[in-house]
Amino acid sequence: MYYRNIDSELLNWKNRSNRKPLILRGARQVGKTTIINHFSNNYAQFISLNLERPADADLFHQHSSIQALVTGIFYLHGANFEKRQNTLIFIDEIQEVPDAINLLRYFYEDFPEIHVVAAGSLLEIVLSENTNVPVGRVEYMILRPVSFDEFLGATGETQSLEILKNYEIPDYAHDKLMSLFNTYTLIGGMPEVVQSYATHKNLSILKKIYESLLISYQNDFEKYAKNTAQVQILRQILKTIGTETGNRIKFQNFGNSNYGSREVGEALRTLEKALLVKLIYPCFSTKFPLQTDFKKSPKLQFLDTGLFNKMAGIQKELIRSTAIELVHQGKVAEHIVGQELLTPSFSPYDELKFWTRENKDSNAEVDYLFEHEGFIIPVEVKLGASGRLRSLHSFIDEAPHNIGVRVSSNKLKIETHKTIAGKEYKLLNIPFYLVSKLSRYIDANI
After folding, report:
1. Hey, what CATH class is 7-142 in?
2. What are the boundaries of each domain within the chain?
3. How many Å apart are CA 355 and CA 73, to the nearest integer?
4. What is the pLDDT of residue 124?
5. pLDDT on residue 125
6. How far is residue 328's CA from residue 133's CA, in Å, rounded to a whole number?
7. What is the DSSP string of 171-231?
8. What's the CA gap between 67 and 142, in Å, rounded?
9. pLDDT digits over 23-45, tens only?
10. Exposure of 18 by Cβ count < 10 A (0-12 exposed, 13-18 middle, 19+ buried)?
11. Measuring CA to CA, which residue among 446, 298, 273, 275 is closest to residue 365?
């Protein structure tokens, strides 16, 4: 069963006349290899290289020229060089031979007719170091965990997928869609987890998969940590990250540890390079250009909500809850909304942002900022009446538009309200299952 939505992006890349070698980025176990194997069905020939295999790695170590390298790749993999214009070469685990990353520029310059994709489980660590990345000669896509739409596809919920294509969502579909989204929030978007649930519909057997994923991330620490001391710090952070995810954090004594600010900061930035966490720093502007305050405490976002639930020990609470906004002080709901806000994008440069205003008279904080057609739209994740959206009101009073978004378990509803200061605005009440479709509702109301 195949259910990922990146194929259209890859086909656009395939069909571009100015196509460059593609580096597919993403954390370990998000499905990069599976996706490219499936995408290869669009080609007459597919050459799959894995640079963890000595024979494949030797090709990149021993070449005397790009011509010799390409000839050797085609020859040793039994491919017809005359069909190179309809050939996909996939270089997996490319971080094992960092010089191979620089060689991508010569594929672009000397063999632009060959389609080349590179990926790797720890590629981000290599890209952030002293690797000679061929600027302007490669392009990037990022693969994130499975989205809600992809979850529906994996579990055979085709009718629900069809309903979500419509602007208007019928009332009769709301409860089922929310039930499905609650399940998605519980298990998360790691492909192996989603596939197992789709096959067995059994939550209890997912425990070992979560544990296996977390162990694999922990085992990676020794591959990219600077020293043994940092390995220990990384392990301590992973143990306590379930209690800190969703919070604005301090580096000093993170997770009630004895580690200092510099040590924790370096460790968290290392995890960020591995795409396991994201440090989200606050913005204090309501229009472009967005201004980020790196002196303030960041929020901590983990790779996947399902893994976060496992580490925080709140899976049973989620199962019993009728509204995910009420679980774990609202952190789970906020986390899954952040995850879904990014799902329409395959650009590694799109990031989550939140807004703060801190002064003596009043403080305000908006959960997320959504960039759309030159506007910055405030997004709050909560139940409650519009009058309780004080931070959103503060943002709208300063913004050059009059649109705000509240995400909750309630049905889709567009309302007109006034801020506390008296500015009229439209409040888009968006159910969780429509977060990835937010652009279309803003387009219709801005």
Report:
1. alpha beta
2. 7-142, 354-445
3. 50
4. 80
5. 83
6. 42
7. HHHHHHHHHHHHHHHHH-S-HHHHHHHHHH--SGGGHHHHHHHHHHHHHHHHHH-SSHHHH
8. 29
9. 999 999 999 999 999 999 999 99
10. exposed
11. 298
